[in-house]
């Protein structure tokens, strides 16, 4: 039986997921709470931590043999428990470890908070939490690390409210893009005229979704601001039912995201077509992206499982918080 | 002194503007009401019409010498007073006249409602009201009508909640695009994370606005979903103040609209650079577009004044509602 060796926290804006891990990285227990950093209980971070992890700490040996704690995500932002300033691209796991900042809990436990990653430039980009998932994916599949010789390195997509696409070369995050796809979809559906003719549907309408993807791909040259209006006009002209409109709009937006990504790839003489990449995220959303990627000629985009806890484990190991192999075999 | 000869109504979703015109088209009086078709008083269309135009009708000779009434805009939609089905592109003033539908008011006055225009296709487009403004602009400046020989015809932009860009050839609306720029701006500002770091500013920040336009033009290849996130990250990295962020985002969106329009033009071997076009809309917004157009090399984009009332007057004249010259000299 594996003994607990690490508490790993994925602490974002709207949720806190805690993992109790063994020294070999196996997940012994998981606890999830809605106490994201924008939704903390009275008592703040400390109380949320106690509510979620107290039972594990109580069951374990007391100080000084306390379980080490690693955390990543918005908990390290300026609005977080303690600010772990961004490390800049190109950023590898070693840079993340060097950027760890600690905070002591009321109980006296030291929480190690990993930093996010910043890419400077005309369009600066930031991530907090995704970098840990990316290193978790690389841990499980080192070949993904991407050599500089390959066009732009390995490509990893993290669909979501703010989707990220990261280029990884020599196991370092070289650069990345943020697409506000999920949040823009919600804003358009709930707060523009497009929502007024929509009916929610319990089932996913794949043809409507793919029609949106194809429209963005083939007729999207005027840009998103122009194509989204077709959600309404296809309805007005009897070509898209009220129930189909949400999935069509979702397809349009994801299609525009992939069209944009393809433009970025084109500038480095590459393309989504025929490319191998990895997705990290919830299954339903990754499935949606996989279907959209096929329309861009990309047929090899599996989802990486357990990226979050693997990434946290790996960073903790590299930081010396646990005795463990720091590189995958 | 010119006698009243026509009541002309620009009746949209959120407002009703009524013009009392002379037989030569001169504006004798104007009345504005918030009784758009989504904001009608008890008593509905009839009451809104009476509230706005009753005083003019009372002052005029009774039936059968009643003042003729022409209307355009959402009043002719399926949610309007009477539905005037869309006429299809290519659509000239004659097609609009042929599509007029009438409704009789409680007072016994006949209101002539002009139809909107529909362009079929993968991305269908519709307009209601803008077609009348476009014909008003052509009435004042017939050379604008655009001969087929010129690349794609004349180009007329109507900035707004749903911005329209119409290509006009031989005085007919050949095709057009709808960009949901204004409404998307509001949805992003008021209902996404981008608004959280913004402070409203009483003054327009031209440098911030133009920075957004330039970013969309020069670094917009990944698309709107990617560039908008820079509103936040430029703030996070101390490069854009909270007060600058609204104008920067506005510049980004208008920049993406013009970038998209430029892509459309590129496919017909044309470009915004060096092009002559016309704008129709409120002065502040047209000024903003003009500044953005300069960044795309377009230095000749004056605003056409009085397009709405001129368009209504012209259609009424063509329909025989008033004795007037139907073609400009």
From TrEMBL, chains A, B:
InterPro entries: DGOK, DGOK_C, DGOK_N. CDD domains: ASKHA_NBD_KDGal-kinase (cd24012). GO terms for biological process: D-galactonate catabolic process. GO terms for molecular function: 2-dehydro-3-deoxygalactonokinase activity. It comes from the Bacteria. It holds the Pfam family DGOK. Coiled coil: none annotated. This is 2-keto-3-deoxy-galactonokinase.
């Amino acid at each position: 039986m594996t003994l607990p060796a690490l508490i790993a926290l994925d602490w974002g804006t709207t949720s806190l997921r805690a993992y109790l891990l063994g020294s070999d990285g196996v997940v012994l227990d998981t606890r999830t709470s809605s106490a994201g950093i924008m939704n903390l209980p009275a008592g703040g971070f400390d109380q949320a931590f106690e509510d979620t992890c107290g039972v594990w700490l109580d069951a374990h040996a007391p100080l000084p043999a306390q379980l080490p704690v690693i955390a990543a995500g918005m908990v390290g932002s300026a609005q977080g428990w303690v600010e772990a300033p961004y490390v800049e691209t190109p950023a590898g796991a070693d840079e993340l470890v060097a950027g760890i900042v600690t905070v002591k809990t009321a109980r006296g436990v030291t929480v190690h908070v990993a930093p996010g990653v910043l890419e400077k430039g005309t369009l600066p980009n930031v991530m907090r939490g995704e970098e840990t998932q990316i290193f978790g994916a690389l841990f499980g599949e080192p070949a993904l690390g991407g050599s500089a010789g390959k066009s732009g390195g390995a490509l990893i997509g993290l669909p979501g409210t703010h989707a990220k696409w990261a280029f990884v070369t020599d196991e370092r995050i070289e650069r990345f893009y943020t697409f506000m796809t999920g949040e823009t979809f919600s804003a358009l559906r709930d707060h523009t005229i497009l929502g007024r003719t929509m009916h929610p549907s319990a089932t996913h309408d794949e043809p409507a979704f793919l029609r949106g993807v194809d429209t963005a791909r083939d007729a999207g040259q005027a840009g998103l601001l122009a194509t989204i209006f077709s959600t309404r006009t296809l309805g007005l002209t009897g070509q898209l039912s009220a129930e189909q409109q949400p999935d069509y709009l979702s397809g349009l937006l994801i299609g525009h995201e992939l069209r944009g990504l393809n433009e970025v790839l084109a500038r480095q003489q590459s393309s989504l077509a025929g490319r191998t990449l990895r997705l990290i995220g919830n299954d339903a959303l990754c499935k949606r992206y996989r279907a959209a990627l096929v329309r861009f000629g990309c047929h090899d985009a599996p989802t990486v499982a357990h990226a979050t806890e693997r990434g946290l484990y790996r960073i903790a190991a590299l930081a010396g918080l646990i005795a463990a192999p720091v590189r995958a075999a």
